UniProtKB/TrEMBL annotation:
This is CPBP family intramembrane metalloprotease. The keyword rRNA-binding does not apply. The chain crosses the membrane at residues 31-52, 72-95, 107-132, 144-164, 176-195, 201-221, 278-296. Residues 146-238 form the CAAX prenyl protease 2/Lysostaphin resistance protein A-like domain.
Length: 328
C-alpha cells in the first residue's frame, strides 16, 4: 500500500531519482512571464466581472451600485482559469517542462485535504478567539457576501498561488534552495498585502509568517500547486463567507454568521481581519511547522540546483581508475 506523500525517491527501477523535479529551463523568463500572466489574469477577472454586471443590469458599475457576489464570482473564476492556462503554457513552452507542478495521480486527494485543512484551521482559530472573548455570533444570514467570499477565495487561491508558489517559490528554490526560497517568497507574499485598504503592519507580518509558511510548506511538501490552492480557497472562504471576518484587510465581510469582534486588535486582528490575530498566526505557524516537518522527512527540502549538479559530478571524478590508480 502506497503512502502519502510519496517517498522522495522513485521505485527500485529508478533508484536515487529525486521526486523534486527541477529540470525546467529559462527560469528568469519564466518569472517575468509569470508576473505578466498575474497582471493579465487580474485584468480578465475585473473585466469579466464588469461585463457580467452590464449583462445583468444593462448599466456600468457605479450607476446601479457595486458588483454583486455572483458577478464577482464569475469574474474571479475567469481570472483563475486564465492564470492556470497561462501557467501551463509558460512552464511548457518557456520552461520546457510540461505540466510541472500540476500533474499527479493524487491531485483529487490534495484538493480535498487542502479544503479541509483550510476550514479546520480557520474554524479552530475562530474558536480560540471566541474563547478569549473576541468573537460573538449575533445571527445567521444567507446573503451575497457568501458568494463574495467564495470569489475572493477562488481568485486569490489560483492567481496568488500560481504567482507566489508556482513561479516565485519554485524558481527561488532552484536558485537558492528551499529554505531561502520559502523565506523570501513569504516576505514578498506578506508585503503585497500592505496595499489592501485596511491592512495593518501586525497583520502583514502575520501573513508573512503564518500564511506564507503554511502555503509555501504545502507546495514544498507536494511540489504541486493543488494543495496550497485548495488551502487558500478554503482559508479565505471560511473566514469571510462563514464567520464574517474581514479578509486580509480588504474590507468588511458578511458571511453566514453575522458576528461581532469585540476586543483588542492583537486578539481579533482589528481591521486586518482574523489573519492579524496572534491566535490565528499561532495556529497557522503550528500547522506550517507540521507540514514542513513532513516535507523535511520526505526529502522535499533541498539545496540549490547548482549544488546538486556539483554533487552529482563529484562521484564521477572520484571513481577509481580501472588500471588501479586514483585520479588526481
Amino acid at each position: 500500500m502506497s503512502s502519502y506523500p510519496p517517498h522522495p525517491y522513485a521505485a527500485a527501477e529508478a533508484p536515487h531519482r529525486p521526486a523534486v523535479e527541477r529540470s525546467d529551463r529559462h527560469r528568469v523568463w519564466q518569472l517575468v512571464a509569470g508576473a505578466v500572466a498575474f497582471v493579465l489574469a487580474q485584468l480578465v477577472a475585473g473585466t469579466v466581472s464588469v461585463l457580467a454586471h452590464v449583462f445583468n443590469t444593462g448599466a456600468l458599475v457605479g450607476s446601479t451600485g457595486e458588483l454583486t457576489g455572483g458577478e464577482y464570482l464569475i469574474g474571479m473564476c475567469a481570472g483563475a482559469l486564465v492564470a492556470l492556462v497561462l501557467y501551463a503554457l509558460i512552464v511548457g513552452t518557456i520552461g520546457k517542462a510540461p505540466w510541472l507542478g500540476l500533474r499527479g495521480s493524487s491531485v483529487p486527494l490534495e484538493i480535498a485535504i487542502g479544503l479541509g485543512v483550510g476550514a479546520v484551521l480557520i474554524a479552530g482559530s475562530v474558536g480560540l478567539i471566541a474563547l478569549f472573548g473576541g468573537y460573538r455570533i449575533t445571527g445567521v444570514e444567507v446573503s451575497g457576501g457568501i458568494l463574495l467570499a467564495l470569489a475572493a477565495g477562488i481568485g486569490a487561491g489560483f492567481m496568488e498561488e500560481i504567482l507566489f508558489r508556482g513561479f516565485l517559490l519554485r524558481i527561488l528554490d532552484a536558485w537558492l534552495g528551499t529554505w531561502w526560497a520559502l523565506i523570501l517568497s513569504s516576505v514578498l507574499f506578506g508585503a503585497v498585502h500592505l496595499t489592501n485598504p485596511e491592512a495593518t503592519w501586525l497583520g502583514t507580518v502575520g501573513i508573512m509568517v503564518s500564511a506564507g509558511g503554511l502555503l509555501g510548506g504545502a507546495y514544498i511538501l507536494t511540489r504541486r500547486l493543488w494543495l496550497p490552492i485548495a488551502i487558500h480557497i478554503s482559508w479565505n472562504f471560511v473566514q469571510g463567507g462563514i464567520f464574517s471576518s474581514d479578509i486580509s484587510g480588504t474590507g468588511d465581510s458578511h458571511g453566514l454568521f453575522t458576528a461581532q469582534w469585540p476586543g483588542p486588535a492583537w486578539l481579533t486582528g482589528g481591521t486586518m481581519g482574523m489573519e492579524g490575530s496572534v491566535l490565528t498566526i499561532a495556529v497557522a505557524v503550528i500547522a506550517a511547522g507540521g507540514i514542513l516537518h513532513l516535507a523535511l522527512k520526505h526529502g522535499m527540502i533541498v539545496g540549490p540546483v547548482r549544488r546538486e549538479r556539483r554533487a552529482a559530478r563529484e562521484p564521477e571524478a572520484r571513481e577509481p581508475d580501472p588500471r588501479g590508480t586514483e585520479p588526481q
